[in-house]
User: What shape does this take?
Amino acid sequence: MDRKEFADKLLKTKHDFEYYEKLYPKRDLDDKAMVTRYAPSPTGFVHLGALYAAFISMKMAKQSNGIFFLRIEDTDQKRSIEDGVSKIITDLANFGITFDEGVTVDGDKGEYGPYTQSEREDIYKAFAKKLIIEDKAYPCFCSPESLKEDRERQEKHKERIGYYGYYARCRNLSIDDALKKIENGEKYIIRLKSKGNFNHRFKFKDEIKGKMELPENDQDIVIIKSDGLPTYHFAHAVDDHLMRTTHVIRGDEWLSSIPVHVQLFEYLGFKVPKYAHISPITIEDNGTKRKLSKRKDPEAAISYYHEKGIPNKAVMLYLETVANSNFEMWMSQNKDKDVSEFVLDFKKMPVGGSLFDYDKLMNISKNYISTLKASEVYDMTLNWAKMYDNDFALLLKKYKDYSIKIFNIEREQKKPRKDIGYFGEVKDQIWYMYDELFKPDKYEWQRITDMDEIKHILDVYLNKYYNISDDKDTWFNNMKKAAISLGYAGEMREYKENPDNYKGSIADFSTVVRVCLTSKSNTPDLYEIMRLLGKDKMFKRVEMVI
Ligand code: GLU
Assistant: This one.
């Protein structure tokens, strides 16, 4: 029996590999255009690190006028969950990650599908057959028990674990021996016949990490499993070739598989794509740096950002800063440009892990939220509250216009206030503006604490000097006049020069008003707060103090 017949006997396929080569022709794109992909298992869970990798892959394709596609890698059926795929698609879309091609919630889009690996069985088998014909792959009949024995022996003798050299027991079986085993009903899988030598160095250049050297692969890795499905290694090589991926961008946990992957491409006669291995986002744990972990770190799940109310856009801006640290500078120098104009560069990506920096994320988020209109902040806060704080949502809805005005204090201006980092903290910042919430557990009185004096200040100021229709300058002048009339210095400088001549300064005086109305010693613009509260609310609050 010749190898072709042998291959046909081992793997039944509808088509041969040539058919598939023709079916998926080279893409008609510019030389510089990158074809990239995001290739998750359908676990339904999007990790921050995965979002980061997906973003980089998307951005690289977009900025080069290429193609970014979604491929679902479900050959390990244990890792699939129901709705896993649509959950991933929706979660990513919420963060602005969209695909030109690939799996969508309504089926496949694009000419290079199917984009779900479990639907591509015939394709993988066709290419596995090609390898068998060329004597680059063979059937392996080793039972799980004998593999286990070998493994135990390797462990005992401190040898490398795996199917190689002496341990690759089926690699030299003749076709006749193999046929006999098949006739006896023995089960088989298909392995690669590696010509690699572990003592030789394999040289390779990664787009991000630069030049690398690893031992050659000498393991006869499995390419087709007993369930007829390919292993991840084999599937990705066949898929990335046929889907005409130019750049495989993925987490650097795959770096050590590079010798196997390049070997697969070469044995299959494919052009090797460029690889870009992204360094992980890390966290410090007991003095050591480790990768953000799904099990240990809440920040690893993107639902964390949703629950806190950190805008998705802010998370993406943060990730872009992690990807290229010059992005932040670019943003501040190009305020009028859209961030999509920033060009991401593999060469500027970190080669080691990047520590997850919550403070930086908050800074970016505060900056971002400060650029929004009051009505947008209102909508986003309301959306958050509807999910996580229903009472607050009801208040926001009841007092819509009033709330928008509150959000507009020191906003929509040249240097807006940067106080909100996440929508979950908004209520703590503005609660005192709502009578329903105004139940202070303490008043933050500062230098003036004598209650008689406080009452006196409030009485004189609010009854004789405050006028809600005053413009800001008049308002401030009147406050000064009131302060002076009660023995306070109208200017800070005067007070500093002769502190003994005064009861206090204008600042002490206005603090009494501020604390009475809000209970807080530190608030946004008091003039605006007073105008929004209005006389009724103000007098009610004075009464509460008295
Ligand atoms: N399915 C693989 C994973 O999620 C994809 C790796 C790759 O991008 O090649 O880990």
